[in-house]
Amino acid sequence: MTTARVSSPQVLCVGELLWDCLADQPGLSIEAVESWTTYPGGAPANVACALSRLGVSAGFVGCMGSEQSADRLLGELQSLGVNLEGVQRHPTAPTREVCVLRDDRGDRQFAAFRSGGYIGHDTREFADTRLQASLLLARQFQAADCLVLGTLALAYPDSSAAIRRALDLADEHYLKIVLDVNWRSVFWPDPGIAPGSIMPLLERVDFLKLAREEADWLFHTHDPIAIADKLDHLEAVLVTDGERGCHYWISGHGGVMPAFKVPVVDTTGAGDAFTAGFVAQLLERGLAALADPAIARSVVAFASAAGALTTTNPGAIDALPLRSAIEDLLRSQGLSGLS
Fold it and tell me: Which stretches make up the Carbohydrate kinase PfkB domain (predicted)?
């Protein structure tokens, strides 16, 4: 496909773009599922799309296959205005398809992968594992303000080296670095090496977002203040916990944002929408403003509303909300002054 050149992105999102294959029959095992519906997904790509919907210039950097299904995925991002100059294409490795099981409440489980209609657990064959450090575009980092990363790329040698190079470029050009841990054991050929691969990365980021189970897994606590004490260079720690809301520590003060009550259909992409909402507000308000506890709380409210709205429709990118929908939800909860 031909990708149009768009403006230099303010935020670079590095990692995976893939197909989420959602089970059409909730509550069944993978063997019992009769049919699947595919949706564009992949956490960094979701964040880039969510930012674009919120009016923030975003770019996606990752490696894709060369098949038509990859063209369709890139076309989805292009239609939302995401900058694709940093996308690499691999001639033989396929674009990843992830089988996503759902329970009756909409909570999901990443269970296996598909390739050519075959369902299996080999995670090393896909194009997203082949992102090349040498092909990253330094000019994009020079023009950007923020870098958003996950940890799945650390599971593979090539993409792990690319993440380290992206961090070097971010440091060189003074980008703020946001990490959403996004732990998915099924992506790791050896999940046992994951903590040792992830923990050094935490020393290089400015803002850390985790789900509660990820916080307990990495730090044996989900208290953001305790995590900030262990990583005292961080400027914010955000721990999301589904229907129990978000616990946060930002610029020296902590708080809790209760969850928004919405009809949940599918939780895929909710954390990515939260991350995008936080980044959008960070860029809009500025880091210095977050020293005000009221402003920090408003930022978390906006991010939480973005995540909640994403759960009300299936899929990730297809379900990402517009700013107007977020503001409507905040007004309906008496939080309009926070947006």
Answer: 10-321
